């Protein structure tokens, strides 16, 4: 489910409890919706995620690539300790921006992204 906050140009996706091979189609559909929304930031709420396998990681990396190509910041929030360990072991903690909660996103980050996007569009 994609929820948008147009004021800050932020779109949020609440993840499913399992990010595995079956969830990759669902996540790719969510990313397609996000790409159409033209937001500056995508926030994936990882709090519901209880299981993450290699296919789930690959789908998140694909979402990260899609965000990069769309000039959008992808942020993961609400990552549990067990899921964080998987990111750490795969060294993906260095690839993804991870915050504790969506509320922990600094307003300055969303404002900075808006400025950068406007500058890129003007160039």
From TrEMBL:
CDD domains hit by this protein: STAS_anti-anti-sigma_factors (cd07043)
Residue span, STAS domain: 1-123
Membrane spanning stretches: none
PROSITE patterns in the record: STAS
An example molecular function term from Gene Ontology annotations: anti-sigma factor antagonist activity
Domain of life of the source: Bacteria
PANTHER family: ANTI-SIGMA FACTOR ANTAGONIST TM_1081-RELATED, ANTI-SIGMA FACTOR ANTAGONIST TM_1081-RELATED-RELATED
Protein name in the entry: STAS domain-containing protein
Organism the protein comes from: Romeriopsis navalis LEGE 11480
């Amino acid at each position: 489910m994609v929820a948008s906050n147009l004021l800050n140009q932020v779109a949020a996706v609440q993840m499913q409890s399992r990010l595995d091979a079956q969830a990759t189609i669902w996540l790719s559909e969510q990313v397609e919706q996000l790409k159409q929304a033209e937001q500056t930031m995508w926030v994936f709420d990882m709090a519901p995620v209880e299981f993450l396998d290699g296919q789930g990681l690959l789908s998140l990396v694909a979402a990260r690539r899609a965000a990069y190509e769309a000039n959008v910041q992808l942020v993961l929030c609400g990552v549990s300790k067990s899921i964080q360990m998987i990111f750490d072991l795969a060294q993906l903690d260095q690839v993804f921006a991870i915050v504790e909660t969506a509320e922990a996103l600094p307003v300055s980050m969303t404002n900075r992204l808006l400025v950068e996007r406007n500058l890129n569009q003007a160039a």
